Amino acid sequence: MNKNKDIGGIKSVNIRSVDIKRQALMSSSAVQVFESFLKENIGSEVLVVNTNIGIGIYYYSKNDYSTFIRESVLLYTTTYIDQKKLKFRNSLNRRDVYQSFCEALVTFSQYPQTFLAYAKKFIYLKEKNKTSRFVVPILTGFFEEVLKVLDKTGKVPHYEKIERVKSKFQKPNTDNKVIKELITQILLKKHHN
Fold this sequence. Notes:
Radius of gyration: 21 Å
Mean pLDDT: 85
Strand content: 5-15%
Helix content: 55-70%
């Protein structure tokens, strides 16, 4: 028996409004409270992505919490929107989460500003949730894979802006910097001899 085998898996609940207006289903402060609530009840591997298009809730667990999440969303959004206009989509395995996540990104890529906003938000959330061991690394893999595919087809809107945002959050490797400085010093001394 493989002890390293994952006992759980990534799952998601995606919520969209069928309303024509494009507005966030929850305010950013409500999302923070909601995410904390979910982490207390499901576990620390929860990520809530809130956009003007909908909410994506990603979690890593052996249990299916989709009904709990659905009911919680309904409680948290009662004052914001007409709940009859919400559509829920559950993905209970990695393949379904991958398909849903990638479909959303490819759809967003047809709307450059929406794609840029989503990419910036995802990069920000990735940085904010650096301690995530499962959800963020898995979604980051999905995100990078879609970016590569869109780049090959030439359909990545605002590619340069996205790369700038990504590089802003990447910290230079201090070991590499020290090594480069040492090599430079050695080469300078070699030229003096």
